[in-house]
Design brief:
With about 250 residues, the protein is mainly alpha-helical. The chain has one domain. It is about 80% helix and about 5% strand. It is built from 8 helices and 2 strands; from the N terminus they run ααααααααββ. It has a two-stranded antiparallel ribbon. It is elongated, with a radius of gyration of 22 Å. The chain starts with a helix and ends with a strand.
Length: about 250
């Protein structure tokens, strides 16, 4: 009974945190868009589909390898594997694309959002046509969790510790999936649901810091470019006031 109550409580927490996370993350993405390098939509779509297909393939490998095992063993493997696979796939653009650090950061965050949308549409359609309307709606509500996990990973990448960021995002992703998957396996989920709820709160509270690191770095670089531009024109007898150019006498 406690397990059922904890699972229901966890699902409610996912919905509440998911809605709040959506608006917080969307606000940050709009904010950083203004001062980070431009990323072409075609590049985002290309990497998002590549990441999604790679993740789908590797998750299929897990299902194949555990096809003769018990349902419990298969779902446990998915709990651990999906986080590692999907968070790794979403980080591929950062490490495989060219450009500045902030360009690759911006690209990777946008790819995470596109990845989440592709997954939400695909799974949402399947759930809808199998009669699980609530499940389909949940897929739409929680899209920003993908972005949040990736942003948290990238926060550590910017601090010079990509492995920590990857493992942190993977753990948060696995904890996010764990209660529902383990419940299907018939495993008691009371403790897992409590830990996963704490992980949800941690994810929500970490978004400001994760995006803030990139935003602060982008602002510093922008100010540095402005300073260099002012020095360049000053050497040529032109005084820069705001966005105006004034010739010195």
């Amino acid at each position: 009974m406690l397990g059922v109550i904890s699972l229901v409580g966890y699902v409610i927490a996912v919905i509440v945190v998911g809605i709040k996370l959506y608006f917080k993350t969307d606000g940050w993405m709009t904010k950083v868009d203004r001062i980070t390098p431009f990323v072409e939509t075609s590049t985002v779509v290309k990497y998002a589909f590549l990441a999604f297909i790679l993740a789908l393939f590797l998750e299929g490998v897990i299902l194949y390898l555990f096809r003769f095992e018990s349902m419990t063993a298969m779902l446990l493997a998915l709990v651990i594997g999906v986080g590692l696979i999907e968070e790794g796939a979403k980080l591929l653009p950062y490490f495989s694309s060219k450009g500045t650090e902030l360009y690759r950061w911006h690209l990777t965050v946008k790819v995470a959002l596109a990845f989440a949308v592709i997954e939400a549409v695909l799974y949402g359609v399947i759930l809808f046509f199998t009669g699980n309307i609530l499940g389909a709606l949940l897929r739409v509500i929680v899209v920003m969790f993908h972005v949040a996990f990736t942003a948290i990973a990238l926060g550590d990448v910017l601090m010079g510790d990509p492995l920590l960021g990857y493992m942190k995002a993977s753990a948060l992703h696995s904890l996010y999936d764990a209660p529902v998957l383990l419940a299907f396996a018939g495993i008691p989920v009371l403790v897992v649901a409590i830990v996963s709820t704490v992980a949800l709160i941690y994810t929500y509270s970490s978004v400001d810091d994760a995006f803030g690191r990139a935003y602060s770095r982008a602002k510093r670089e922008l100010e540095e470019r402005k300073r260099k531009a002012q020095e360049f024109w000053k050497e040529r007898g032109v005084e820069v006031i705001g966005s105006d150019l004034t010739s010195s006498p």
